TrEMBL record:
Residues 237-383 form the FIST C-domain domain. Keywords: Cell membrane, Membrane, Transmembrane, Transmembrane helix. It is found in: Cell membrane. PANTHER family: F-BOX ONLY PROTEIN 22. Pfam families: FIST, FIST_C. InterPro entries: FIST_C, FIST_domain_N, UCP018953. This is FIST C-domain domain-containing protein. The keyword Membrane applies. It is a multi-pass membrane protein. Its main location: membrane. Residues 35-236 form the FIST domain. One of its GO terms (cellular component) is plasma membrane.
Length: 403
């Protein structure tokens, strides 16, 4: 029998870190019939005071050449009973191990000051990461706060590795200003980005569920300045928006008061836009006098956009739509062996009113493959061929062999 890709995950809720580490190591290693090439560890911020002990404890019991991870306001994994759980604001540790034959696995840590100039050549980024662009690598990225330079890093990686999939999230603490931890090959960091590049016999696919549904119709930006929309279809944006809101049902009008977003179309050539074609961004403010609208990204004249609403129902429908589409597209491909989930702290039980919603919906479509992950301060995933930092999103990275 050929050497096959294997993946295992375990989630422990033991309140003692020693016991939790022993638990996840024993369960993941006993699930694999070959040595692990990659480990991914996510630890709940309930263990904040013990972050420095995580890697030494793991090293005592686990031999894995590449190990990366971070802290989260919640963690995701497989319980002792075999159920996928999303544990928020309580002690928990999630460990994924992967046996990856024919895959080159390279870990790295970069800080904002090391990032090359975005106007420079792609080779500067390739030198920084230490991974060639062929065969095309795929990336799992875990970053600190916005000062980590994550947006520039994503832009640079897209530039240097255009065919690569990049998924991940920002480490979180569960409380404003709380301490975070990034783990990379025996070292603990509190700034920058840790990542792993996977090249060779591996496919990494992404599902980016932004949790919104479009309302009205697409409009075209006819005038804009940086992140300010000055004209939509040659009209003041605020007047366009008022007319749109007036046409909504009473329920949607109420929702629009605090759950209204803008979706920027990422493919300028696609005529029929649908869910997944938009990059969702916040509305930051309006100018009642001039009718302009400021949003959380740059706009350019000619770009199409559509207003969106977000609530629990829209989030559930959005994820189900994307999972159904993925299942249809992948039915003739080799089966997925493992996955990672990067969910916004604003989702989970706070959004749905019950725990484990996104992860259990995912498992319904992907036949109970091992799933690990954490609740992020921002989620990393592709939309329309480019990689972005998102909010209120669940990003799934799904691994399989090339086939």
């Amino acid at each position: 029998m050929a050497d096959q890709m294997q993946w295992a995950n375990a989630l422990s809720t033991r309140p003692s870190l020693e016991a939790a580490v022993a638990d996840v190591v024993q369960r993941t290693t006993s699930s694999l019939s070959a040595p692990a090439d990659l480990g991914l560890v996510f630890i709940s911020s309930a263990f904040t005071s013990e972050y420095s002990r995580v890697l030494p404890l793991l090293a005592e019991q686990l031999a894995v050449p590449v190990l990366v991870g971070c802290s989260g306001g919640g963690v995701i994994g497989t319980s002792l009973a075999g159920q996928t759980q999303e544990l928020e604001a309580e002690p928990a540790l999630s460990l994924s191990l992967a046996h990856l034959p024919g895959v080159d696995v390279k870990a790295f840590h970069v800080v904002a000051e090391q990032l090359p100039d975005l106007d420079g050549p792609p080779s500067a980024w390739i030198d920084l990461i230490g991974v060639t662009s062929s065969p095309t690598p795929h990336f799992i990225l875990l970053s600190a706060s916005f000062s980590s330079g994550i947006n520039d890093l994503l832009q640079g990686l897209d530039y240097a590795y255009p065919g690569s999939i990049k998924v991940g999230g920002q480490a979180s603490s569960g409380v404003m200003g709380g301490r975070i931890a990034l783990f990379c090959n025996g070292r603990l960091y509190e700034e920058g980005t840790v990542g792993v590049a996977l090249s060779g016999n591996i496919v990494l696919e992404a599902i980016v569920a932004q949790g919104c549904r479009p309302i009205g119709q697409p409009y075209q930006v006819t005038r804009g300045d940086r992140n300010i929309i000055l004209e939509l279809d040659e009209q003041a944006p605020l007047f366009v928006l008022r007319d749109l809101i007036a046409s909504l049902s009473e329920e949607d009008r109420t929702l629009a008061q605090n759950s209204l977003f803008v979706g920027l179309a990422m493919d300028e050539f696609k005529s029929c836009l649908q869910q997944g074609d938009f990059l969702i961004r916040d509305i930051l403010g309006v100018d009642p006098a001039g009718g302009a609208i400021a949003i959380g990204d740059y706009v350019r004249p000619g770009q199409r956009l559509q207003f969106h609403l977000r609530d629990a129902e829209a989030s559930a429908e959005d994820l189900e739509f994307l999972l159904e589409r993925y299942q249809k597209e992948q039915q003739f491909q080799p089966a997925a062996v493992g996955a990672l989930m990067f969910a916004c702290l604003g989702r989970g039980a706070g959004l749905y009113g019950k725990p484990n919603f996104d992860s259990q919906l995912f498992q319904r479509y992907l036949n109970n493959i091992p799933l690990g992950g954490f609740f992020c301060g921002g989620e990393i995933g592709p939309v329309g061929g480019s990689t972005f930092l998102h909010g209120y999103t669940s990003v799934f990275g799904i691994c399989r062999a090339v086939g």
